[in-house]
Amino acid sequence: MKFVALLFLISCLAMVGFGQNKTDATGKKQGPWVKYYEDGKTPLYTGTFQNDVPVGEFRYYYPTGKVKSIVRHETLSRAYAWFYFENEQVMSEGQYLHQKKDSIWKSFNAQGMLVSIETFKNNRLNGVKELYYLQNQLETGEMKVAQRETYVDSVLHGAYSAYFSSGIKKESGRYENGLKVGIWETFHTKGAVATRIKFRKGKAYGYAIAFDEEGNELYRSYYLEGKLLQGEELKKYFAQCEKNGISPEE
After folding, report:
1. What residues are paired with 174 via a beta bridge?
2. Total domains present in the chain
3. Is residue 224 part of a domain?
4. Residue 180: its H or E element
5. Model pLDDT for residues 51-93, shown as the tens digit of each residue
6. Residue 215 included in any domain
7. Residue 17 contacts by C-beta under 8 Å, 6 or more apart in sequence?
8. Class of residue 149 by CB neighbours under 10 A (exposed 0-12, middle 13-18, buried 19+)
9. What's the pTM value of the predicted model, to 2 decimals?
10. Which entry of 3, 70, 152, 222 is 20 to 30 Å from 27 by CA?
11. Residue 16 domain-assigned?
12. Does 125 have pLDDT greater than 70?
């Protein structure tokens, strides 16, 4: 079947072959164009040029002849693209602006389930990125968020949250320039806080507290610059803080 499809594609291209791959007196591509793989028979892409600029729809192919991607040039600066797995399922789709990823992009797995939705500007992640549970989509058709991240120029910066498949929050916190900052919390499956810990420039500091599902404190640990202090080391540090008039939480 794949061979028949490839043969049909080649036949169609051959019928328009006399009017394709033309350049004008200045060397600019004009009209229908086909580029082939090294075998000279299998098309790599097909499309149309106007004054060396792509216009309309371009199609790119796998060596088998299956469509690898479709790029629709809507204006000189903006295009919309679809990328495909070889089983013909959409792999990803989104917009290009000045040949760089822009706005919302969606990604899927080979079975057609939504994996993520990302926000781009200038080819970099800028804004919210959501990751989705696949199990829910497979079993019930629901699309539930597993993780929500915030980016600035492809670096984690802003609110972060993760969720159980039930939709209840699993973890929350904040990043600044790729590093954890402020209070981070994890949650029990019914929504009660399970742990609470503070971060400064990506390192845990101060008390980390664990709670049961009723909100009662189970235990607490102490961190300094990301290191867990225990025993004599912890006593010495607290004594030093008291001597210097410094709160261990500062």
Report:
1. 159, 181
2. 1
3. no
4. strand 179-187
5. 999 999 999 999 999 999 999 999 999 999 999 999 999 999 9
6. no
7. 34
8. buried
9. 0.84
10. 70
11. yes
12. yes
